[in-house]
Amino acid sequence: MKRASCTSQKWLPGQPSRVKELKHRKKVGVKCEVMECEDTSMVPNRLQFTVDPSCLAAARTEARGGEYFTEAIADVLEEAYHGSGDVITNMKRLILSKQFMWKVYVDVVIQQYGGNIIDAIFIAVKAALIDTRITNLTLVPQDEGKFNIECDESTETNFFQLEAANAPLCVTVNQIGKSIAVDCTEVEEALLRTSLWIVMDQPESERTPDDEIRLRVVRQMDPGGMDPRSVPAMIDLAIRTGRNLHSSVNTR
């Protein structure tokens, strides 16, 4: 079998959040490879996420839990994009046949840490997936059940893109003392007791009621205790912030 692959990279400095500029940088690379398996319908996760810090950001992420922290971010990305299979509406285009499919690897590198990192990563991943171009391929049967993978000479026009415009975004709500806050700086994060990572879909319209906005992931991070009575207020703040965040990202 011939091997086929395509790559895309998205370099994003700090994206504007609700109040201020995020003081960190991250790089998201998207690599697509054709993989062979017994039955592509039995492979639920066609996107694979990894999150790693650069040397400059390693000490900062270590303070948040090191590998546990970066693996938790990757796990939330996996859950958000694979929960029901409807985030990327043309995901079926990754299937080439019963035995062959495109596997999409999304690699995030935190190059500079400045707080509120997971919210920024979700923005960067969405932008990178939207920009990714995947070559249209043809499988040509050969002897002994083998296949050759062929594509047109011009890959500039012979491609498709993932329909990720409605991908969810994350809003981190932090408990600092008796207060709750979003868009925290690195200094503010050092004071937090605990936090909620809340991944929400894009509202269908500005008039969509809060209780009709889908929350794909709600996960507590950081070891501190959380007063259950504060959770509704934290979710309400996340939804209000998420509305503005989705609107800001869509206008860019």
UniProtKB/TrEMBL annotation:
Whether Methyltransferase counts among this entry's keywords is: no
Subcellular localization, as worded in the UniProt entry? Cytoplasm; Nucleus, Nucleolus
Q: Name one Pfam family in it.
A: RNase_PH
Cross-referenced Gene3D superfamilies? GHMP Kinase, N-terminal domain (3.30.230.70)
GO molecular function term, any single one: mRNA 3'-UTR AU-rich region binding
Q: What InterPro entries would the database entry show?
A: ExoRNase_PH_dom1 (IPR001247), ExoRNase_PH_dom2_sf (IPR036345), Exosome_comp_Rrp42_subfam (IPR050590), PNPase/RNase_PH_dom_sf (IPR027408), Ribosomal_Su5_D2-typ_SF (IPR020568)
Key words of the record: Cytoplasm, Exosome
Gene Ontology CC: cytoplasmic exosome (RNase complex); nuclear exosome (RNase complex); nucleolus
Q: Which GO terms describe its biological process?
A: exonucleolytic trimming to generate mature 3'-end of 5.8S rRNA from tricistronic rRNA transcript (SSU-rRNA, 5.8S rRNA, LSU-rRNA); nuclear mRNA surveillance; nuclear polyadenylation-dependent rRNA catabolic process; rRNA catabolic process; TRAMP-dependent tRNA surveillance pathway; U1 snRNA 3'-end processing; U4 snRNA 3'-end processing; U5 snRNA 3'-end processing
- Judging by the UniProt lineage, the source's domain of life is Eukaryota
The stretch of residues making up the signal peptide is none
Q: What is its main location?
A: cytoplasm
Exoribonuclease phosphorolytic domain mapped to chain residues: 28-134
> Which PANTHER family does this chain map to?
EXOSOME COMPLEX COMPONENT RRP42, EXOSOME COMPLEX EXONUCLEASE RIBOSOMAL RNA PROCESSING PROTEIN
Family classification: Belongs to the RNase PH family.
* Protein name per UniProt: Ribosomal RNA-processing protein 42
Q: Which organism is it from?
A: Teladorsagia circumcincta
